[in-house]
């Protein structure tokens, strides 16, 4: 009986040692993930400290949104034009998401003192009266540094959730596709 008990105890101890080794491997694996995340954080673009050009602006937008949304970026001296594509969704959510993208991007771009004007265009897919899918301009916003400096954009970003049309009154120009505006209550 003692031999069986010792054998069972030995098996349990061996299993716990194997489990500890697996936990150490998982922790080591997590360390690699953490190191990769730190590298990504270090690679973050700070446009205030680097040259204003198309490549740097694209990198910044990719950090905020991901690469799959970017259609085109144009940098012309102090003017920046950004064209994106956003998949269709509920109209209110669409307006909230794109408005928040706009605020995030503009807040970063205006850190560079050379930036004076930003144009932000988002295209999407809409249904026609004939039930056809058509790509069209969903949102077009423009803002100047002068207008940007008048507001606390973090507060406005929070207000966008309850009042998605708020940017209309704050920007130099704002155009939103009629089907989006008509379907927001």
UniProtKB/TrEMBL annotation:
Keyword Signal: yes
UniProt superkingdom: Bacteria
Signal peptide: 1-19
Keyword entries, A-Z: Signal
Name of this protein: Lipoprotein
Species of the source: Clostridium thermopalmarium DSM 5974
Lineage: Bacteria, Bacillati, Bacillota, Clostridia, Eubacteriales
């Amino acid at each position: 009986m003692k031999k069986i008990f010792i054998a069972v105890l030995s098996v349990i101890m061996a299993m716990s040692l194997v489990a500890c080794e697996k936990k150490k491997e998982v922790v080591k694996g997590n360390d690699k993930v953490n190191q990769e995340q730190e590298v990504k954080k270090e690679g973050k673009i700070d446009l205030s400290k680097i040259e204003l050009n198309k490549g740097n602006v694209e990198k910044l937008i990719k950090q905020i949104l991901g690469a799959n949304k970017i259609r085109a970026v144009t940098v012309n001296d102090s003017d920046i034009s950004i064209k994106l594509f956003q998949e269709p969704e509920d109209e209110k959510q669409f307006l909230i998401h794109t408005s928040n993208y706009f605020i995030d991007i503009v807040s970063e771009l205006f850190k560079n003192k050379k930036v004076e004007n930003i144009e932000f265009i988002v295209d999407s897919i809409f249904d026609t009266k004939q039930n056809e899918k058509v790509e069209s301009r969903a949102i077009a916003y423009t803002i100047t540094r002068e207008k940007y400096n008048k507001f606390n954009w973090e507060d406005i970003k929070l207000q966008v959730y309850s009042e998605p049309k708020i940017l209309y009154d704050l920007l130099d120009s704002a155009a939103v596709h009629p089907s989006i505006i008509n379907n927001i209550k």
